Amino acid sequence: MAQITLDDLAHSYHPNPSGPDDFALKQLDMTWRDGEAYALLGASGCGKSTLLNIISGLLHPSQGRILFGERDVTNAPTADRNIAQVFQFPVVYDTMSVRENLAFPLKNRGMAGQEIAERVQKVAAMIDMEAVLDRKARGLTADAKQKISLGRGMVREDVNALLFDEPLTVIDPHMKWELRTQLKKLHRDFGHTMIYVTHDQTEALTFADKVVVMHDGRVVQTGTPQDLFEKPAHTFVGYFIGSPGMNLFDADINGRTARIGDATLDLGRPYAASGRMQVGVRPEFVRVGTGGDGLPARIRRVEDVGRHKIVRLDVMGVETAAIVGEDATIPTDIDRVSFVPEGINVYADAWRVAPQGETP
User: Fold this and answer.
1) The 83-86 sheet, strands edge to edge
2) FRET pair for 344, CA 20 to 30 Å: which of 155, 176, 212, 288?
3) Model pLDDT, residue 359
4) What is the arithmetic mean of pLDDT over 181-190?
5) Highest mean pLDDT among 20-34, 87-101, 132-146, 181-195
6) How many CB atoms are closer than 10 A to CB 24?
7) How many angstroms separate the CA atoms of 323 and 306, rounded?
8) Is 213:39 a contact under the CB 8 Å cutoff?
């Protein structure tokens, strides 16, 4: 196992990049701590797989260095990095049995037969394939083959890191939950450094100690699921994390007062920033009502999703969501919304601005 350090890393698929827009992965300095489980989260095309392939050695960066511990592996081939990588689509040997596929990485490293048998049996139980160990991989379903790929990634205990590139895409929903649980158990038992690429926020938030959110080739925030929910560092994080995502309102900010359209809002704490200013509030912190203080609103529809209701509103031309309890009675004459002060975030040019006096 090893700490992974990315030093001044960037990558372009253009031979002669002329500006930031030519880079699939923009300049990045980052440390992945030894033994932690990370999710690399973002929309398709944001640079997640590019970054993972640079770490694994499948792709050489345009600039910068990759360190495993103190060792510079920037120019080292994949085989010399001692990592295991599982791809989005299954990579198995069809002519081998499930048992032989799982044992293959261990045989390549000269492990003793009894150790191989014990390890294969343990991993087969984790991926629920004990009953088919002696079946050829050919003819198995796509999700069964992907479980073999996952098992091959997990079978070694001596790797520097385990890298997963959207590995559950072809797995049925129930098995996804089971395999995420097994991956978390594997991490607890063996303490591998794990990096799990996904565009699914549920997978990311339930798997990882830390979530790394990428947008447009750039890491915009690294933090715990609670960090991402309560203090999104970028408006993209607010939008991408949560269902529904964060509500955003263009605003003029003066100290602790925001002017949104013709209405004013007390932010609770003073802010000092310039640029395009926005107020962000998650639906969980929006309160709906009739009359009194707040921003003028008009109800559009109510969606009952079982565990709660989502009230969709028009707030001065901005489509806004509020979450209320499943048993709440929602009046049809709602004409105001207000915000829980602790749930308000302020953004300048899409980046979060800390209120004056906030402890980092």
Assistant:
1) 83-86, 161-165, 193-198, 37-41, 210-215, 218-223
2) 212
3) 73
4) 74
5) 20-34
6) 20
7) 12
8) no
Contacts 24+ apart (CB under 8 A), 262-268: 262/316, 263/294, 263/295, 263/296, 263/316, 265/295, 265/339, 266/341, 267/341, 267/344, 267/346, 267/355, 268/341, 268/342, 268/344, 268/355
- Residue 337 CB-density burial (10 A; 0-12 exposed, 13-18 middle, 19+ buried): buried
For residue 75, the 8-state DSSP code is: T
Convert the pLDDT of each residue in 27-52 to its tens digit: 999 999 988 889 999 998 899 989 99
Question: pLDDT at residue 1 above 70?
Answer: no
d(CA 108, CA 294): 67
CB-based contacts of 44, cutoff 8 Å, min separation 6: 199
Sign, CA torsion 195/200/206/210: positive
User: Which residues lie below 8 Å from residue 19, measured CB to CB, with a gap of 6+?
Assistant: none
Helix (H, G, I), strand (E, B) or coil at 200: coil
Q: Mean pLDDT check: name the lowest of 141-155, 222-236, 261-275, 325-339.
A: 141-155
Tell me if residue 9 falls in helix, strand or coil.
strand
Residues 149, 87 contacting (CB under 8 angstroms): yes
pLDDT on residue 296: 94
Work out whether the CA dihedral 312, 313, 319, 321 comes out positive or negative. Answer: negative
93 pLDDT above the threshold of 80: yes
Preceding peptide of 270 cis, ω within 30°: no
Per-residue pLDDT, 360: 64
Rounded to whole angstroms, the Cα distance separating 336 from 297 reads 5
- Model pTM score: 0.86
Mean pLDDT over 22-27 rounds to 93
What b-and-e string marks burial along 207-239, b requiring 16 or more CB atoms within 10 Å of the CB? bbebbbbbbbbbbbbbbebebbbeebbbbbbbb
Residue 154, C-beta contacts closer than 8 angstroms, at least 6 positions apart: 84, 123, 126, 127, 162, 183, 186
Ordered structural domains, the chain, with CATH: 4-240 (3.40.50.300), 247-353 (2.40.50.140)
